[in-house]
Recover the amino acids of this structure.
């Protein structure tokens, strides 16, 4: 499988267009060799042609789960088929499971394009674009979706990075509300962020046990790895004002996912015919 390698100073980012347009490695040089900032991708995951097991994959045209695959658009009910192994609710859209075309790649930047024809999966046509710019200070990922239909349709964007996780890894981010979920990770109700889930002050992610969507995010978050002497600033432009935080038990990773809509609520975000929705997410590592 073709891997695009971007290099800039101490940073390296590898992309796999055919595996869901995913990032398969993001690392920084250290005294003993490269140090991974996102979980590295196993060869078996790269070969499968999907982004689920990679370092980071795009969420287009929606994030998280759509309950029972039921989507109501303009009074019309559309039923979506399950698309994720072991999940009965459609999840994370099409982009992670489809090959993307290389628009350009020049060593420090690349563009990947996916055009959806609605023959399977999402029932509306769209074009998605990812741009990657790697500089000495970090990686900037641009996301864009264009509605190819002649009417307004739901459309959302997001990014699903898997950060490496140590026992002392910390997170800080400011949010206002959070959706509590049921046993199937479907949203039940929105509440003010409770103290055990509040990362307004930097605190360890271990023990959080989260898979929830937060809102009122100011577009900034910081991850710290004290034992590695590293940190990373995450910055997102509009429309990324929701944040999914996923901290699974006993896994060597956790996720901080900038998204454009609340989980299960993409039908509330209609994109006019021919219009685009776009934003950028930056990953800027630093030394502690």
């Amino acid at each position: 499988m073709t891997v695009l390698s971007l290099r800039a100073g101490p940073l390296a980012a590898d992309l796999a267009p055919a595996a869901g347009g995913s990032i398969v490695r993001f690392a920084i040089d250290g005294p003993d060799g490269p140090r991974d900032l996102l979980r590295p991708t196993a060869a078996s995951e790269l070969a499968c042609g999907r982004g689920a097991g990679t370092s980071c994959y795009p969420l287009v045209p929606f994030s998280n789960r759509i309950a029972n695959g039921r989507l109501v658009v303009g009074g019309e009910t559309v039923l979506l088929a399950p698309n994720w192994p072991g999940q009965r609710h459609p999840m994370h859209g099409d982009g992670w499971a489809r090959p993307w075309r290389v628009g350009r790649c020049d060593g420090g930047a690349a563009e990947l394009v996916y055009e959806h024809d609605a023959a399977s999966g999402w029932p509306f046509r769209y074009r998605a674009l990812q741009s990657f710019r790697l500089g000495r200070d970090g990686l900037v990922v641009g996301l864009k979706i264009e509605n190819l239909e002649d009417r307004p349709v739901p459309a959302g964007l997001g990014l699903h990075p898997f950060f490496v996780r140590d026992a002392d890894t910390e997170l800080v981010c400011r949010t206002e509300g959070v959706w509590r979920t049921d046993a199937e990770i479907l949203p039940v109700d929105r509440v003010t962020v409770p103290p055990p889930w509040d990362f307004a002050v930097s605190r360890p992610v271990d023990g959080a046990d989260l898979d929830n969507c937060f809102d009122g995010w100011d577009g900034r978050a910081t991850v710290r790895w004290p034992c590695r002497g590293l940190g990373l600033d995450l910055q997102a432009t509009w429309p990324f004002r929701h944040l999914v935080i996923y901290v699974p038990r006993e896994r060597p990773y956790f996720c901080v996912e900038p998204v454009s809509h609340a989980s299960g609520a993409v039908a509330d975000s209609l994109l006019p015919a021919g219009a685009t929705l776009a934003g950028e997410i930056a990953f800027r590592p630093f030394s502690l």
